[in-house]
Amino acid sequence: MGLSRRAYARHRGVAESAVRKAIATGRITLEKDGTIDPVKADRQWEAQTDPVKRHMSGKPVPRAAIKAVDDTLREAGTAAPGGPAAYMRARAAREMIGAQTAKVKLAKMKGKLVDRAKATALVFDLARRERDAWMNWPPRVAADMAAELGVDAHLMEQVLEHHLRRHLAELAEIEIELG
Question: What is the pLDDT of residues 140-159, one digit of tens each?
């Protein structure tokens, strides 16, 4: 003799309504006497339940999250794609997403996150100001330097500007990766 619906629900750790729904939709079958064989029903439950679905709400867990959990399990040498561990993998993926989301929210509240577009624009603006400041430097100092060296001021400005432009061109080739 098997278990009653209520006893099987306790065995599975789910609400009795979930067991009734599983029976109604054909995910699990009853024995001839109307009871539930827990071993057989567990196999059916696992085989007939979409592992990507959340336990109670039915909201899907992103496949990328499940892949991340699978990769982590594989790296740990405990990979178990599909089968009875599928629900646990989906649940772990959901928990991982929740933890990452909470971490980002906390960092944002603490003011530790910056908007990528704003940061990129700020760096670009700062670099442009720096370049403009350097481009204005030769005309300001060329006459003083020329007087100290006893050379033509116009020639000194041209030489300084030439070398400065070459140096700025080298600096412009540097690639900045923002994550």
Answer: 999 999 999 999 999 999 99
> Which domain does 155 fall in, by range?
116-172
Residues 54 and 109 in one domain: yes
Q: Which of residues 88, 113, 138 is at a domain's end?
A: 113
SS (H, E, C) the chain: CCECHHHHHHHHCCCHHHHHHHHHCCCCCCCCCCCECHHHHHHHHHHHCCCCECCCCCCECCHHHHHHHHHHHHHCCCCCCCHHHHHHHHHHHHHHHHHHHHHHHHHHHCCCCCCHHHHHHHHHHHHHHHHHHHHCHHHHHHHHHHHHHCCCHHHHHHHHHHHHHHHHHHHHCCCCCCC
Whether 179 maps to a domain, the answer reads no
* pLDDT tens, residue by residue, 20-63: 999 998 899 999 999 999 999 999 988 887 655 544 445 556 67
- Give the tens place of pLDDT for each residue, 81-138: 555 556 676 677 778 888 888 988 898 888 888 888 888 899 889 989 999 999 999 9
Last residue of a domain, one of 49, 64, 85: 49
Total tally of structural domains belonging to the chain: 3
Q: 39 and 80 share a domain?
A: no
